[in-house]
Amino acid sequence: MAIDNIGAPSRELEHEHEHPGSDLYIRVAIVLTIVTAIEVVVYYVEAFRGFLVPALIVLSVGKFFAVVGYFMHLKFDDKRFAWMFAAGLVISLSVFIAATAMMWSDEYYLGDVPTTIEQ
Amino acid sequence: MASVVYPAPHAQPHGDTSRGTATVARPKSQTGLRSWLTTIDHKRIGIMYGVSAFLFFMLGGFEALLIRVQLARPENTFVDAQRYNELFTMHGTTMVFLALMPMASAFFNYVVPLQIGARDVAFPRLNAFSLWTFVAGAIILNLPVLASLPSTLAYILGQLFGWVPQFTLPFGNFVPDQGWYGYAPLTTPLFSGKEIDFWAFGIQVLGIASLAASFNFIVTIFNMRAPGMTMMRMPIFTWSTLITSILIAMAFPAVTIALVLLSFDRLAGTSFFSPYNLVDGQLIATGGDPLLWQHLFWIFGHPEVYILILPAFGIVSEVIPVFARKPLFGYAVMVYAIAAIAFLGFGVWVHHMFVTGLGPTPDAVFSASTMLIAIPTGVKILNWTATMWGGSLRFSTPMLFAVGLVSQFVIGGLSGVMHAVVPVDSQQNDTYFVVAHFHYVLFGGTVFAIFAGLYYWWPKIFGKVLSERLGKLHFWLTFAGFNLTFFPMHFLGLAGMPRRYWSYGAESGLWFWNIIVSAGALLIAASVWVFLYNVLESHKRDRKAPADPWDGATLEWAIPSPPPVYNFREIPIVTHRDQLWVEKYGPGDHAHGQEDELDVTIAGAKVGGMTVPDEQAGEQAAQRAETLHAEDDAHGIHLPNPSWYPLISSVGLLVLVLGILIDNPHLQVLFLGIPLISLVGAVVMILGFYGWAFEPASDPVHSDAGMGSAH
Amino acid sequence: MATTVVELQTAHGSGGDIGHADGHAEHPPSSTGMDSRKLIMWAFLASDTMFFGSLIGTYIIYRGRAEALGVGPFPFDIFDIPYTSVSAFVLLMSSLTMVLALGAIQRGNQRGLRVWLLATALLGAIFVGGQYFEFTLFASEGLTLTSNMFGASFYVLTGFHGAHVTIGVIWLLTLVWMSLRGGISQENSMVVEVAGLYWHFVDIVWIVIFTLVYLIPYEEVATGEGAPAVEHSMNLLARLGAALPF
Known about the structure:
Chain B: It is an enzyme of class 7 (translocase). The complex is a heterotrimer of chains A (119), B (711) and C (246). With 119 residues, chain A is mostly helical.
């Protein structure tokens, strides 16, 4: 059961993990650079306008997971770290998407603005 | 001798000549003021949390009494409207942030490491920093109250003798008066003064303390458990501490950011929370939105409610099984219920905002999610009742308070479900019905549980027995006073009496229940004095408490009362839930049905079964125990040394914040645009952090260290 | 936050301060097998998502309000995408040098550790300096904290991130200092790893900010001169907003 896995003693100790070597990191960094370049290109090229927002979101989510997975070792590390971070991420994403949706307004109506104030 | 070493079984002296690099000499004394200021012992920190929380509980209670004196009769002029606003603001803020939360911290600190069989928390110095930062926040929050004493005194003299001061009083009167949730735009510069800065920075600093403590306890509970104590063998109070800590870690950031934005509004001229900004006497439309404050505040504020109540549930879940002499009914379901309450707690904040007109969809969604929370809460009530069912009950004082919670919290919970219904809530919003609801939850829930916990763990903490006779008197006075105070508030609310009004008309017909409520408040005050008398008497009579006065089930009762500094001579090995009962009585009666078995069946269907991967866990536990014991044998019991740095860092933080807050032109010397006092505070704080970072957690043991002699 | 950072500097034992006092390399196992310092850092990072969630939410809500009131400057008058892309690239590269620093100390290479740590700190400092320059540039073009809600929420969000980077730079330099004093051993590489987690988190936050703040347009009308015409995608988002039942 998932909740008990959190507590069950792990057989793996930290340093038994094989940390990936430098060349993998460099490859990941190159990919990240290319994706960033693509983002900027997508932003400027007229033809991509139709799917600019979804494309940007997909690309940045990809970058996000590349850094978390490789540079922060979550891909290789104890899965419970990943669960912990994912839980926090899911809570904050859902809370703030809901709050932003409720606060979002196409038009902002101020009403009759008083121009002076009685002190 | 530089290090505190206690003898472990078969300990050998151990030599090591490398030295720490601390620049402030390490404190060595173990008694006296200095030892308390530098302590990083979780037990002492817990006691200090408890004492300060109780003092603030008395202060908040005093403020409540003044409110009740004012409302005791219609059109009273005991205080004026402004002071009334200040009283309910400080009452709410003090009770939530300075009384109930730190009281829970006191129990976390004292009890959790004992329950999980550890010698301290994972990061003891961070723990001390949390304590001192809490004290700093409490000072900042209450400085306006202190500074307003001259004007208050003049006010009282004016009321009594008609004396009007002929000179300017120092400081004036600037106590926060906007309510504990600080709704914008009451807090914006347009409508408020310096007091809101103290309030905002005070809560900000308290937030730092709470966050640091929460990270510490998450790690402690995950990582410091005794060998063999799997998550599902943890005492339920430890579970509730873990979940509460997760709630704090996820909820406080929202209010931190809200307060940052508010401080920008107040100090830098932005208008995050106000649609208008005042520029040269002209109102400029900015597009800021007071609703954003409400969202951010309640994204924090609703989980905060569970931060206040979950430790209470944990305490009660410890007390009831012990006094029913029966294992907790449905342990696994109880754990899931706590987790479910915490998780759902993040999805209900809008029910505090039903009358702001968010539209039918948010109202419907959050109404439904609010009602959902009643399910896990109801499960807990059922499990407590089922634990008592068929048990051999002893109604000692802790049990009385625990059962008091079960009965009174149900009333608060039911009125809570009423508030989940949007049309009903729209009627009850901002009336005394709401006041009745949350006092049934926070007093009938949290305060009852705190007293249950105090009576339950008092013999363990102080090694002295409290009088049962006085305890029972205390309980019945509290119980009567509580219901007398808060039950009639339901009637007042339904009769239409609004919250936060300083007075009511003589013709309104509200006087009858109001005088009853005020009388009840006096009864509660009297009951607190009974408790204090009980404490005093217990220390005078000095009746020693045995190690295990209640026939407890958890590890803290396995060690002497009060516990030695190192808690456990030998780190225990845990094989069962309710470990101590199993050790005392064998795995028969008490442990029956706890492990690997179904916990609850409803209509023949298994609901809460847990299988623990026992063989693997057992083998690993044995290995780990062997390592830990070998370590003790080789080095003696190593405890981290006391340290000045947490205190220094917190004092630096306090000075830093005070530098921002003080606006006396003689003190507010700017250096590179930064107040000089703040700069000094920042330097002290950073030096404290660096000293801390470069100071080893505990000094190495020297070969000349006398074995087992602790100075 | 800073205190968490400070506590992590304490280079002793995997069970936090307790349980292992003499700073030897052995690891008395914690109940979960997870290192306490790493665990507290992940707990802090999970919580930090709420900090940035609050700020990013505030920004998204308020960015359009300047537009609605017609009080400029607006995002498209101000943002210089090529410049910020370079900043984003610098921060990405600092993540690379950070993992290389960790790799170095895990192989016991003290000099490599210091070189890569210094490189990371330098890249971080370049980022913060670039942000300072960007802020002064924007201010000279009329965008201040108080000019409109876009300015207020933009500066607070990116400033909060910049503060994170600054703390990170100080932390990295402290690690270099510790390494010079011989305080970081191969077995003790956790000190570096934990700092790395913090550093990479700051990087992923910037990935999110770069997309949500700089690249994605929110307004119905782009008014800036140098801004690309992005009406279509804006309509897309507007449609998305209109489709929501709120």
